């Protein structure tokens, strides 16, 4: 008997049962609220409520990062790459892992379990590690994107050759081309996501002193862009 097709409710239930599902949902909600606040609506009561909501969700999201650094440790442990690419993975996973590790202590500060005196130093250290991790991730994604583009050209060439020789297209090659193009678009979206997150991390490292990226609207849009892409990625897993 074939497995029944998953409907929207099934998918939503499965999505929200995962840590990443809840975290990315909260991320979209948080930066939507921040964007509305940054646009300075005339209703002051709405602004106050949304600002409080955004702050509360920000603290709540940190709880979902407990132990998350172990994923990066495992990724490095089981890496099969060598030489230069392994160095990039070390930068990417190492930076991200340190960020998630420090975020646990940031959460403890926010909840009052640790002294507020640690908050500024932890925020700077975690943002710096996060920025390093994104730099490594973007570099790795660019290498993967280059390989996908090369693969796409090879499949296109094979389809053209088949058409000339046989006068018909190969369904298997067409399907493969579609899959490669989807992966290329997805990889491009991941780069955009990391760039958006990098803007926010850079702003935190610089203490909001860089003109242009320190704008509340820019930061809210960057967060919403990143949240939307990560939501889509985890929804389709």
Question: Would you kindly provide a written description of the structure presented here, covering whatever features stand out?
Answer:
This protein is mainly α. It has a domain at 8-64 and 207-236. Helices cover 80% and strands 0% of the residues. The chain has helices at residues 8-16, 19-38, 44-63, 69-77, 83-110, 119-166, 171-205, 216-235. Helix 2 (19-38) runs antiparallel to helix 8, helix 4 (69-77) runs antiparallel to helix 5 and helix 7 packs antiparallel against helix 8. The protein is globular. It starts with 7 loop residues before the first helix and ends with a helix. The mean pLDDT is 93.
SSE string, helices as H and strands as E? HHHHHHHH
End-to-end C-alpha gap: 24 Å
Oligomeric state as shown: single chain
Beta strand count: 0
* Number of distinct helices: 8
Sheet/helix structural class: mainly alpha
Q: What is the CA-atom radius of gyration, in angstroms?
A: 21 Å
Helix content: over 70%
Mean pLDDT, rounded to whole units? 93
Q: How is the main sheet built? A: none
Q: Beta-strand level of the residues, as a percent range?
A: under 5%
Q: Estimate the global geometry from the Cα principal axes.
A: globular
Unreliable stretches: none
Reconstruct the topology from this structure.
Blueprint lengths: L7 H9 L2 H20 L5 H20 L5 H9 L5 H28 L8 H48 L4 H35 L10 H20 L2
Membrane topology: Multi-pass membrane protein
Protein name: Peroxisomal biogenesis factor 11
InterPro entries: PEX11
């Amino acid at each position: 008997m074939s497995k029944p097709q998953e409907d929207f409710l099934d998918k939503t239930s499965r999505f929200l049962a995962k840590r990443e599902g809840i975290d990315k949902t909260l991320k979209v909600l948080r930066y939507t609220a921040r964007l509305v606040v940054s646009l300075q609506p005339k209703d002051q009561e709405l602004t106050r409520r949304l600002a409080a909501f955004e702050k509360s969700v920000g603290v709540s999201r940190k709880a979902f990062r407990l132990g998350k650094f172990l994923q990066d440790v495992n990724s490095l442990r089981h890496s099969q790459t060598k030489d230069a690419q392994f160095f990039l993975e070390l930068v990417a996973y190492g930076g991200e892992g340190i960020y998630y590790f420090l975020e646990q202590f940031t959460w403890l500060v926010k909840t009052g379990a640790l002294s507020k005196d640690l908050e500024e130093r932890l925020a700077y250290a975690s943002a710096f590690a996060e920025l390093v991790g994104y730099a490594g991730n973007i570099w790795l994604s660019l290498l993967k994107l280059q390989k996908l583009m090369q693969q796409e050209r090879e499949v296109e060439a094979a389809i053209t050759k088949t058409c000339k020789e046989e006068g018909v297209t190969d369904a298997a090659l067409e399907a493969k081309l579609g899959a490669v193009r989807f992966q290329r678009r997805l990889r491009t979206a991941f780069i955009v996501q990391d760039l958006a997150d990098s803007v926010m991390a850079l702003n935190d490292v610089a203490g909001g002193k860089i003109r242009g990226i320190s704008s509340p609207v820019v930061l809210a849009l960057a967060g919403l862009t990143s949240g939307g892409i990560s939501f889509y990625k985890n929804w389709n897993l």
